[in-house]
Design brief:
254 residues; five-stranded mixed sheet; three-stranded antiparallel sheet
Amino acid sequence: MFKSDLTLINEELQPFLQNLMGILHPIQHQRNKQLLQKRLEEAKYLIQISSKSSRFHPIYDLVRTYTLQIQKDYIFNLALHNKDAERYFIEDSLGVLNHSLYKFDTVQVFPLKKHSIAIDLSKNPALSPLWHPKRLKNTLNLIGRDHNNSFQFDSTNHESTLILPIGVTVVTNGLHSCSTGIFKAEGIIYPESVTDITNIYSVIRFDGNHYRRLENNRIVYTPTIKELGILFEIGRLIMDNNIAIPFQNLPVLY
């Protein structure tokens, strides 16, 4: 009887909840658009007051504040959520690298010579997607100066690519140990390639909620983690303002 009563209440609440979500979604979408504009204005101001020829432009410090927050969210959610939630973080973690964006233009990948570029996890923006709670907990408990076991690059396990023009290195193998290095701001990794997504900017934009095609405004992809879309648009500013790439031995992309 009690179970039937709960079922009846849920059925009665369903239309109300659907109506409420219909009201809240447009409000949240507008807030997301406003947040994007605010973040881009902050980035534009930083570019305006900074020297473009700086060896390490402060715009990359701004990019790193976003990647650190995203990485902490990965760790927090993977540690607390159930197994179903893990898949969401795998699928959404790359965001700007989502394959649906690649369909519209060629993404150029340039191989790098071994150890030609060093990514300092205490300074350079990096992201390491996660998928296994137990592995994450093990690496957090085993790796780091706090355990007298500093993060060390392992060429047989750690793989990554440097995404330009955004300037973010995305780890593609050795995810949990690299995530620990990012979280604890220690260690150096060496990407095997540079992934140039500059061509995408001529066909895709992020509006705060969705990636859309410029020619017809059609939605291409909707990232759950909106900060990844913000990073995508900061990459556009970096490209449009010809900001110096903070690494040597790279091809000239724009």
